[in-house]
Amino acid sequence: MSWPSCSPAPGAPPRKPLTECRPSGSPSLGSNIPTLDAVDPETGSAASAVADADTNTESARAGTAAGPVPGVAGSVTDGPRGAGARIASPRRSGRPARDRRPTRDRRPARPRLPGDGPRARLVRAGLVAPASLAVIVLGAFPLVFILLAAFSRSSLGRPFQEFVGGDNVVQALTDHDVIGSLIRSVGYALAVAVLSVVFGVIVALALAGAVRAGSLVRTLLLLPLITPPVVVGILWKLIFSPSGGLIDTLLRTFGYRGEPLSILANPDLALAGVGIADIWEWTPLIALLVFAALLGRDPEVSEAAALDGAHGWRLFREITLPAIAATIAAAFLVRLVLAFKVFDLIYVMTSGGPGQATTMPAYQIYQAALQHSDVGQAAALTLILAVVITVITTPIILISRRFGND
Q1: C-alpha to C-alpha distance for 210 and 287, rounded to whole angstroms
Q2: Which GO CC terms are listed, alphabetically (predicted)?
Q3: CATH no. for residue 322?
Q4: Which tens digit of pLDDT belongs to each residue from 87-118?
Q5: Is residue 113 part of a domain?
Q6: Nearest 5 degrees, angle CA 283-CA 289-CA 294?
Q7: How far is the C-alpha of 73 from the C-alpha of 67, rounded, in Å?
Q8: Which domain-ending residue is among 94, 129, 153?
């Protein structure tokens, strides 16, 4: 077997040989692989070199000699691999191969969004400005007014008459009625908030168990929430009425023949009667919040716990309660603040009586500002109440955040 001639055809320009000329014999398979030097510098064609190498390789495998393939630009061989060789363009194949070195990873530039320009930012600021102005006017202005009024002698017609320092605050803290109302308010708020949350969780669990009746019961639960507080106070005042009220009628029906039971006129029961009306009004809110949390939990967890033998109280304590603990804590916080602010029920049902039995700080603020026209004293009571609410609610906020993080 003879090796093809390495000399160019007559009349053709000289070109660089593909490989070194070898004597006659069986060429090795790897010797016919073209390199980057096999590109014709004149014609810039590498197709004939690739086709020649493929043909010689196939012939060497089959044990036959491969004939020479002329190095004409754009020619292909009839071999099975050479038939699929693409004809390289002289302009593209004449370029030297680029050195493909690994490039350093570069972070792609962040695409510029349509709203990133200064005009878009100005538009967004203009849209937020009304809400920010409302917060400043409705929040910051009353706070500044209360602070200035608390440290000055002020009335409804003439606020900020003269600066008196902390005299209003000292006078409020040395008043036994104010101290008594603060203590009464703390006990009332904690008791009402705890009972509202307990009853709300029970109602929410009942709603979650009765799926079919859930829509009807949820509609009925909304009635106390959409009823004005003044109407709620009048309703429960009629229920507690000693002459013809619902409770008195039921007692007479079951054989009670004693004196009429006047709950709101009894100093020991009046605050409890107001609390019952307050619980009835706001328990549906707690129930709806907890019910929404029950719907948001994964039912597969409860099903897996039930398969492991957890039922009843154990299932609620180990599975359900940890899942809704954050919602219960937040609902308790909201309910506690609402209980501290109770005014309308007391104004309608008892007017702070009998005596001072149902007088709360909110009712005292109303008396000082609107009945006695002492805005400075009312502002001082407001600051003291705000401090008390902050001290009571801060641990609950921390506990609520802990449950939320868990």
Answers
A1: 14
A2: plasma membrane
A3: 1.10.3720.10
A4: 444 444 445 555 555 555 555 555 555 556 78
A5: no
A6: 120
A7: 18
A8: 94
Q: Among residues 30, 31, 185, 124, which one has the least CA distance to residue 6?
A: 31
> CB atoms < 10 A from the CB of 294, how many?
20
* The pairing of beta strand 162-163 with beta strand 152-153: antiparallel
Structure tokens at 196: 């509202």
Report the SS3 class of residue 163.
strand
> Both 180 and 38 in a single domain?
no
Q: Which amino acid is at 357?
A: A
CA 203 to chain centre: 26
> Is 135 among the domain residues?
no
153: number of Cβ within 10 Å: 18
pLDDT at 100: 54
**363-372 pLDDT, tens digit each:** 999 999 998 8
Alpha-carbon distance of 359 to 179, in angstroms, equals: 11
The single-letter code of the amino acid at 306 is A
Tell me, yes or no, whether 184 and 87 share the same domain.
Answer: no
The answer to whether residue 106 is domain-embedded is no
pTM of the model: 0.66
What is the distance between the alpha carbons of residues 53 and 69, in angstroms, rounded to a whole number? 9
Residue 35 has pLDDT above 80, yes or no: no
- Which of 61, 80, 69, 74 minimizes the C-alpha distance to 18? 69
Residues 128-166: tens digit of each pLDDT: 899 888 888 888 888 889 999 999 998 888 888 889 888
Q: Considering the domain boundaries, does residue 177 fall inside one?
A: yes
Range of the domain at 61: 1-94
Same domain assignment for residues 85 and 171: no
- The helix (H) or strand (E) run that includes residue 177 is helix 176-209
Residue with tokens 């490989």: 19
Q: Are residues 213 and 81 in the same domain?
A: no
Q: Specify whether 88 is located in the same domain as 172.
A: no
Q: Please answer whether residues 157 and 343 qualify as being in contact, where contact means their C-beta atoms are separated by less than 8 angstroms.
A: no
In tens, the pLDDT along 288-301 reads: 899 888 888 777 77
